[in-house]
Amino acid sequence: MSIKVVLFDFDGTLADTLPLSFHAFKTVFKQYDNRDVSNDELVAMFGPTEEDIIDGNFSDKTLVQQAIEDYYSIYEQGHFGTFQNDQEIIDLLQFLKESGLIIGVITGKSRRAFQLSSEALMMQRFFDISITGDDVDRAKPDPEGINNALSILNIDKSDAIFIGDSNADILAGVAAGVRTYGVRWLPTYQSPDYDLMPDGIFNRVAEFRELLEKENILHGN
Predict the structure, then answer these.
(1) Which terminus of the chain has a lower count of CB atoms within 10 Å, N or C?
(2) pLDDT score of 145
C-alpha cells in the first residue's frame, strides 16, 4: 500500500490544546452566560467553530461578540508559559516531511484559532494544506473536509490516511473511504470509544511509526 498524504485532526491529535480550549470556553461561559460547563458538556458542543459554539449556546446573544474576542485572547495566552509541544509529534511530522509525504490538517477549529495554535507551536511549516471549520459547510463527522483536501491535492482516497482522536474523526474518515486511525497518544483526547472501529488505534506515537516502517507503506513496497 502506498501512502502519499497523511491527514490529521489537530486538537487532541497533533497538539494538547484541548485543555486550553476547555479553560477559555469555561471562562467566557461563566463570565458572560453565568453557566458552569463541564469538559463533557463542551465536547458535546464540539463540531462547529469556536464562534458558532458560543453563538449557538449563549442565552444572551448581545454578549456573543465580546465573549468570542475574550475566548481568543484567553486561548492564545494559554500557549505560552508552561505549555510545551510534544516532541514525539514534532519528530513524527519531521519524519513524514523528510519521507516526502504531504501533510494536511482537517480541523473543526476556526481558521483564526488554528492559526493561533499552529503559529504559537511552530507547526505551520509542516502543513501543506489545512481545512478548518470555516472552510466547510458540514463539520465532522461529515467527510466534506477530508474530501475537499483530497480534491485540492488531486490525491485518490486509496493514497491517503486520516488520523484523529474523536468519534467524529473516525466517522468522517470511514465515510470518506480513507484508511482511518484513532489516537490516544496525548494526555487529553476526546473519545475513549468509537461508533465505528477504525483501522487501528495508537496509544503511542511510536506505534504509528512502527506501522509505517513495518508495512513499508511510505514507499509502496
Answers:
(1) C
(2) 98
